[in-house]
Amino acid sequence: MRWEKSIVMNLDRFTSDLADLESRGRRRRLIPRRIDGRFLVDDDGRRLLNFGSNDYLGFALASATPSPSTHAANNIAGSTASALVCGWTLQHHRLAESIAALESTESAVLFPSGFAACSGTIATLAAPGDLILSDALNHASLIDGCRLSKADVVVYPHGDVAFVQQQLQQTARAGQRVWIVTDSIFSMDGDIAPLADLVEVAQRYDADLIVDEAHGTGIFGQAGSGVVEMLGLKNEIAVRIGTLSKSIGAQGGFVAGPQAVIDYLINHCRPLIFSTSLSSGAVAAAQRSIDQIQSDPQPRVHVRRLSRRLREAIGQQCVPGDPAAEVPIIAHIVGNDSAATQASFELQQAGFYVPAIRPPTVPTGTARLRISLSAIHTDEDVDHLASALARLTKA
Predict the structure, then answer these.
(1) Is the pTM for the entire model greater than 0.90?
(2) Which of 67, 88, 335, 354 is the 20 to 30 A CA-CA neighbour of 188?
(3) What is the distance between the alpha carbons of residues 351 and 46, in angstroms, rounded to a whole number?
(4) Would you say residue 69 has pLDDT above 90?
């Protein structure tokens, strides 16, 4: 069915905006591709080695052997209702209990997406009159949650703990509740937040720290729960947000924390209360992945080793023992928007999919290639990409 041309709606604002984006090389489009293991396949059959996915442990991409996601694919039924009506099944409950056990918290609750978990949790826990200190490079979901909370929001320079302390000394009012909000790993740069220092400052000034482990879950920590565990801070950071759609290879989000916080979200968090609960297929896939994370550390060991290997191959400094060198996100800064787009195109011509990330996702002048590694990649894959990047640099 095709739309008739006589649509009763003024589209000038939208078409003008799209034309402006097009003129600046920033218009985005959805490009359909088929996923075949660690490859993306274009309509013309061209196979691209995929370095754009957030499937860090390879649970969603693996096709040579049945993965958690493919096992669950036979059960795609919807949950039929929101969690509070009748969409919270025994499987949902078991998954939430498994997440709480992984995170070593009293309880956990599931959300329809990581975005909903972040934005909904911040907007619900923080209240008008509170103060939120939010890292400048936090994910959009955290930023939106801060805005929706109607609390006083101060955006602090990226990773600047001294600035946070100064704000707590000078800006926070007596008796005012203060929240510090940060990602554990920043999605566009791959760097790790100074969580230990933030914890120290938060405790000194009686602030609460909320951490989004979207890119840390499954990768770091002895049990695989993330950066908070790796740094030994589970008892100091009460509320942790995560996603089921990256390392876990499924779909959805979660919040883990004290029982009182989880119960408060269940009673007041609108994205949780008014959204249809996760499908049974997503729950089954996530459960299998969490079970595997706890029983088999090899995928996270492998992807961390690949991350260090690629950084060393492209000349990035890797300090021995520094976990930042093992984050499976590598930013290759190009600077100019069109140059980043061209670099991504040339890599596609060479058989690699590495997305160009441009403003407004990243600051103006920092357009980049964002390289994401997965446990499904091989040493040869990484070495070939490093060689292709070297050829680009020389050109």
Answers:
(1) yes
(2) 67
(3) 8
(4) no
